[in-house]
Amino acid sequence: MQVAAFAVVSAIMFLLIGATNLTLAQTPPTPTSPRSAPPKSTQPTVKDAALEKRVLLIAEELRCLVCQNQTIADSDADLAIDLREQIRAQLVAGRSDTQIMEFMVQRYGDFVRYRPPVKFSTAMLWFGPFLLLLAGAAVIFKVAQQRRRMTARKLTEAEEQRAQTLLEGSASAVEPGVPELPRRN
Amino acid sequence: MTRFLVPLGVFLLLLLFLGVGLTLKPGEVPSPLIDKPAPAFKLAQLGEPAKTFSVDDMRGRVWLLNVWASWCVSCRDEHPVLLDLAKTGVVPIHGLNYKDKREDALNWLKQFGNPYALSVSDREGRIGIDYGVYGVPETYVIDKAGVIRYKHIGPLSGEAVQNTIIPLVQKLNAGA
């Protein structure tokens, strides 16, 4: 029980720290200068709609490194705009989704992916929540067991009798040797 | 006894996690480019746009590539440190002027001083993407073989230069 609680608390702490770190993440300065020439494709025409959809699909898988809790698709940071432009250009050049993903990971690392690959360094990320769930289940199981033990014990015959007499409030039935309590009136 | 030991243990573990959490810098994403060849580029020089500069020009030398911009506020904090480092002559610093206007960049250098052997213009930020730049300033240490050996994210401090950059440059120069 205690071991399980310990595991749960430590796992929660682990996740909490991860979460706070993300929210506290420093945001490097975003350029304030006006963009050079607005990319032609920021106003998608009907013809581009399919392309834009693919761009967004890929961009939603990528983390914006400037504002780390947003995807490249969500973020308005300059870098996110540039990377969307990059995705668009590469799609136009006929590169596949996987190739584009590789391009990004090569430059920014696994961190750029919102769904990082399962490997040793990301094991805690992928399996931590399930461990937490297991630990929680263990705690509940233990507590339930303890509670059952507490209520389920049967009284011995003597105890049963004594309980009965006490309940009936018959002073005369109190066992010999047990001093009778003074009655309050 | 365990009644007290377990909560104490949980508390200590909590302290440990929070303590470790304080030392982490989640804003600094580890670069996958460390120990990989510096991405090639051939860009116009900021001072003399007719001339170009490429990574290969620095073959056989240890050098720093510093990503900067005139719009970058923390670059101003970093600037005196770079000027000091340039003065020591320990290592040549090359600038990658990132998504900047040429006039702005030149004015900035005129106003604050120029620590760079030369700077190149990455007008569209395309080379910045190749280098995984996501915040300016960033500084790369590149060895004689053109391999990135270290990346510093954010403004360099005097301490970082003294304790990390200079020793690393000396080690690389010694032929390691």
Rg of chain A, please?
33 Å
Q: How would you classify the quaternary structure?
A: heterodimer
Number of helices of chain A: 6
Shape verdict of chain A: rod-shaped
Keyword list:
heterodimer; A: 185 residues; Helicase, Ruva Protein, domain 3; rod-shaped; B: 176 residues; Glutaredoxin; five-stranded mixed β-sheet; two-stranded antiparallel ribbon; 5 helices
Folded structure, characterized:
The complex is a heterodimer of chains A (185) and B (176). Chain A is mainly α. Chain A is 56% helix and 0% strand. Chain A folds into two domains: 73 residues, no CATH class; 87 residues, Cytochrome C biogenesis protein (Helicase, Ruva Protein, domain 3). The two termini of chain A are 48 Å apart. Chain B has a single domain, classed as 3-Layer(aba) Sandwich (Glutaredoxin). Helices cover 40% and strands 19% of the residues of chain B. In chain B, strands 5-4-3-6-7 form a five-stranded mixed β-sheet. Chain B is elongated and about 80 Å long. In chain B, 38% of the residues are buried. At the A-B interface, α1, α3 and α4 of A face α1 of B.
Secondary-structure map:
The complex is a heterodimer of chains A (about 180) and B (about 180).
Chain A: H1 2-24, H2 49-59, H3 78-92, H4 97-108, H5 123-152, H6 157-168
Helix pairs in contact in A: 1-5, 2-3
Chain B: H1 2-23, E1 42-44, E2 52-54, E3 63-68, H2 73-88, E4 93-98, H3 102-112, E5 118-122, H4 126-130, E6 138-142, E7 148-153, H5 158-173
Parallel strand pairs in B: 3-4, 4-5
Antiparallel strand pairs in B: 1-2, 3-6, 6-7
Question: Could you give a quick summary of the protein structure above?
Answer:
The complex is a heterodimer of chains A (185) and B (176). In chain A, 56% of the residues lie in helices and 0% in strands. Chain A is mostly helical.
